[in-house]
Design goal:
- By secondary structure, the protein is mostly helical.
- 52% of the residues lie in helices and 0% in strands.
- One of its GO terms (molecular function) is transcription cis-regulatory region binding.
- It comes from Polyplosphaeria fusca.
Length: 665
C-alpha cells in the first residue's frame, strides 16, 4: 500500500488510500436525569406495601371492549381504573412500571415514608378528608359566615336595621348597581349576605355619626378577614365594597382612607369570580370535571350590575384621585347594560346605561388630554382641537339620547361635570405660533362653555333640597372641588385670558361664585351634627363647610384685592341642625347673606381628634396652639394649588400636616 502518489505514478501502480481507523467510542455513563428518575422510582416504590384491604383485593382484568356497550363503556373503564392498587393513603393509582422496584432497605423505607408524609400533609386542609377516594368536583356557592358582633346583632334584633334598609332603598337610586328586592328582609340578608347588609347599615347610618363610625370599623375588620386572612370570594362581597365606596365620604378619613386600594380589591375579586366575561368556562378543563351549572337569569343580571358598578367606581374615583383607571371599557359592558335595560328587572336599571356611557366618555377625555404627552400641548395644537371636537360630538349624541329619565337630575349632574371637564382644556395657554386657524374664537367658545357648565353644576347642586344631600354619592362630591377651582380660574384675570381677550368681569357677573359658596356653607352648616358639647366630632358636612368657607374668602380676596369682613360670630351651640333651623325658620334651602358662622368660631373644637375626618384642629381655648388654617387666610395664598393637590387623597394630608395641628405649606 503506497501513500505517496508520485511513487504510484513512477511504479505504474494503482494508488490505494489507507482507511483511517475509527476513534474508539467512549462509554458514557448513565445520565443524571436517569439517575434522578431511578432514585425517585425507588422512593415511591418504598411506599407500595399494600395494606390489608389492598392485599385482599384481586387484580382486575381489563374488560374486553366488545363486551361493553358505548353508553356504559366509559363508566366501567373508569371504575376499573380506580380498582387498581393505589399508593398508601392516597387515591392515585399505582403505576405498573414500578412493580419491580419494591425491594428497598428498611432504613430507606422509614426515611422516605416520613418525607413523603410531610409533603402530603402540606396540602391537607381537613383531617376528615378521605384520601383513598378520588376527588369529587362539587359546584357549590360558598356560604358567607355570619358576623358575630353585638352592635350588628342588636340592630337586627331591635328592628333598627329594617329602617336603615328602607333608607338605603331610597339612597341607592343615585348608584343603581346593588338593588335590594322589596321582599328581602334584614334577617334574610344577615344569613345569606351579611357583608352586604353591614355595608348598607354603615352607609344608611349617616344621621348617627357615632354608630356609623363603629359600623365602619367593624366593616373594615370583617373585610380584612374575609378578603385576605380567610378569603370568601362571593358576589355579595364585591357588592358590599361597591356600596361602601359609593357613600365613602361619610366615613372618609385621611388617616385611614384606602379608596384606591379598596377599589382595586373589589375589581380583583370580581375578576376572580369571572364577572368580566360572558361564561364561567374554566381556563383548564380537568378530566372528569362536570360542567358548571347554568346561572339563572336573575343571577346573571346581578353579576352584570355588580361588574358595571365596579367600572363606574373605577372610572369616577380614578379621575377624582388623578390615578389611572385600570378597568377599561369593553364591549361586554355594553352587552350588560343593554340587557339590563331590556329586561328592566328594577326601574333603576334604565339609568345604568347612560351612566356607563358617560363614564366611558370621561375616560376618553382623560386619555386624550391628561396623559404625560398631552399635558404639555397648547390649546391651539391640532391634536387637542381634533380630539375636543370628536368628544364634543359624542357628548351631544349622549345628550340627545337621554332627555327623559325618572332620575334625570343624576344624569344632568354627571353631564354638566363631563362637559365642563372637556371645555376646561381651554384654560391652557394658546398656541405660540402665528397660525392659529381661528384658534382664539374656538378657545373663547370653549371657555364660555366651561363657565356655563360650571354654572349649571352649581344651580343643580343648590336645586337639590338640603335634606336630600345624603343621596349624592362619593363620586359626586369628589367633583365639587374641581368645579370650584375651574370656575374660579375662569373668573380671575391672568395672562392667558388677556391673550384671547377673555372678559373676567363678565364671567364674575355671570357666575357669582362667592354667593354659590356661601349658600353651600349655609346648607352644610344646617346638615352638620357637630356640637361642641353634644357631638364634638366634626362630620363630613362640617369639614366641607369649612373648606367652602375658606375658599370663598380666598376667592373674594383675589377678585377684590381686599379683605372680606367675616360673617357675624355665632356660638358653638348654634351649629347643630336644630339651632340653625330655629334661628332661621323656613330658610333651610334659601341662602341668607352672611348666615353661616365665621370660621373663627366654627373651627374652635375642644378636641384635637377628628375621629372620622381627621383634619386636625387645635384646642378651642388654647391660644398658644397654631391655627391650622392660618396659611389659607394669607392674601397671597394660592388656593388653586391647594385644591389641585386633591382633598380626597393622602398627598395633601401628609404634605400639609393635616391631623397634627401644625399645618405647613
Amino acid at each position: 500500500m503506497l501513500t505517496d502518489p508520485s511513487r504510484c505514478f513512477t511504479g505504474k501502480k494503482d494508488c490505494i488510500w489507507a482507511e483511517q481507523a475509527r476513534r474508539a467510542k467512549r462509554v458514557r455513563g448513565p445520565s443524571r436525569i436517569a439517575q434522578v428518575e431511578r432514585t425517585l422510582n425507588g422512593l415511591v416504590a418504598t411506599l407500595t406495601t399494600p395494606d390489608s384491604a389492598n392485599e385482599a383485593r384481586a387484580p382486575s382484568q381489563v374488560p374486553d371492549p366488545a363486551q361493553l356497550t358505548s353508553p356504559n363503556r366509559a363508566q366501567q373503564a373508569n371504575s376499573e381504573l380506580w380498582s387498581q392498587p393505589a399508593f398508601p393513603g392516597s387515591w392515585l393509582p399505582f403505576p405498573s412500571s414500578l412493580a419491580e422496584q419494591k425491594a428497598q432497605s428498611e432504613q430507606d423505607v422509614d426515611g422516605s415514608h416520613i418525607f413523603i408524609e410531610k409533603l402530603r400533609l402540606i396540602h391537607s386542609f381537613d383531617d376528615t378528608t378521605d384520601l383513598s377516594r378520588p376527588p369529587a368536583f362539587m359546584h357549590q356557592t360558598p356560604q358567607e359566615p355570619p358576623i358575630d358582633d353585638d352592635l350588628f346583632k342588636d340592630l337586627i334584633a331591635t328592628k333598627q336595621a329594617d329602617s336603615l334598609l328602607a333608607e338605603y332603598r331610597i339612597m341607592f337610586g343615585s348608584s343603581p348597581y346593588v338593588p335590594i328586592p322589596a321582599t328581602a328582609s334584614t334577617h334574610e340578608l344577615a344569613t345569606t349576605k351579611p357583608m352586604l347588609l353591614l355595608a348598607i347599615l354603615t352607609a344608611a347610618s349617616w344621621r348617627e355619626h357615632h354608630r356609623q363610625m363603629a359600623l365602619d370599623k367593624l366593616y373594615r375588620t370583617e373585610l380584612a378577614n374575609r378578603a385576605i386572612i380567610r378569603p370568601r370570594r362571593t358576589v355579595s362581597l364585591v357588592q358590599s365594597i361597591v356600596v361602601y365606596l359609593s357613600w365613602y365620604h361619610f366615613v372618609f378619613s385621611h388617616k385611614t382612607q384606602q379608596t384606591f386600594s379598596l377599589l382595586q380589591l373589589a375589581i380583583g375579586i370580581a375578576i376572580d369570580l369571572t364577572l368580566h366575561q360572558r361564561s364561567r368556562r374554566p381556563f383548564v378543563d380537568f378530566p372528569g370535571r362536570p360542567p358548571q351549572p347554568q346561572l339563572s337569569a336573575g343571577e346573571q343580571r346581578e353579576r352584570q350590575r355588580t361588574f358595571l358598578g365596579c367600572y363606574h367606581l373605577s372610572s369616577a374615583l380614578s379621575s377624582g384621585l388623578s390615578k389611572p383607571n385600570l378597568l377599561k371599557y369593553t364591549e361586554y359592558m355594553a352587552e350588560c347594560w343593554k340587557r339590563l335595560r331590556d329586561d328592566m328587572e328594577y326601574p333603576s336599571d334604565k339609568m345604568i346605561g347612560p351612566l356607563i356611557s358617560l363614564r366611558r366618555i370621561d375616560d376618553q377625555i382623560h386619555d386624550a388630554f391628561y396623559t404625560d404627552d398631552a399635558l404639555d400641548l397648547s390649546f391651539g395644537d391640532s391634536r387637542i382641537f381634533m380630539n375636543m371636537r370628536f368628544i364634543e360630538s359624542q357628548l351631544d349624541d349622549w345628550r340627545s339620547d337621554n332627555t327623559s329619565n325618572k332620575l334625570q337630575r343624576v344624569l344632568d349632574f354627571a353631564y354638566a361635570y363631563a362637559e365642563m371637564q372637556l371645555h376646561s382644556i381651554a384654560l391652557r395657554p394658546p398656541s405660540s405660533s402665528g397660525a392659529q386657524h381661528d384658534g382664539s374664537s374656538a378657545q373663547l367658545r370653549s371657555l364660555w362653555s366651561a363657565l356655563e357648565a360650571g354654572k349649571r353644576f352649581f344651580d343643580m347642586l343648590l336645586a337639590f333640597p338640603a335634606t336630600e344631600y345624603h343621596l349624592l354619592t362619593f363620586s359626586d362630591w369628589m367633583q365639587l372641588p374641581y368645579v370650584v377651582i375651574t370656575v374660579a380660574r375662569l373668573c380671575m384675570p391672568n395672562e392667558n385670558h388677556d391673550a384671547v381677550n377673555w372678559d373676567v368681569k363678565a364671567a364674575q357677573e355671570r357666575v357669582r361664585l362667592d354667593l354659590y359658596l356661601e349658600s353651600l356653607c349655609y346648607r352644610m352648616q344646617g346638615l352638620s351634627t357637630f356640637d361642641a358639647v353634644k357631638q364634638p366630632h366634626p362630620d363630613f358636612w362640617m369639614v366641607m363647610k369649612m373648606i367652602m368657607e375658606l375658599t370663598r374668602k380666598w376667592y373674594c380676596r383675589k377678585i377684590n384685592g381686599e379683605k372680606v369682613p367675616p360673617p357675624p360670630v355665632q356660638t358653638n351651640n348654634s351649629s347643630t341642625p336644630e339651632t340653625a333651623q330655629s334661628a332661621n325658620p323656613g330658610s333651610a334651602s334659601t341662602p341668607v347673606s352672611h348666615s353661616a358662622p365665621s370660621m373663627d368660631s366654627a373651627t374652635s373644637f375642644p378636641d384635637s381628634s377628628f375621629s372620622a375626618m381627621e383634619i386636625g384642629m387645635a384646642g378651642a381655648g388654647d391660644s398658644s396652639v397654631q391655627d391650622p388654617f392660618a396659611f389659607m387666610r394669607d392674601v397671597n395664598f394660592d388656593m388653586d394649588q391647594f385644591l389641585d393637590m386633591g382633598i380626597w387623597g393622602s398627598g395633601s394630608y401628609e404634605a400639609m400636616g393635616f391631623g397634627g395641628g401644625h399645618m405647613q405649606f
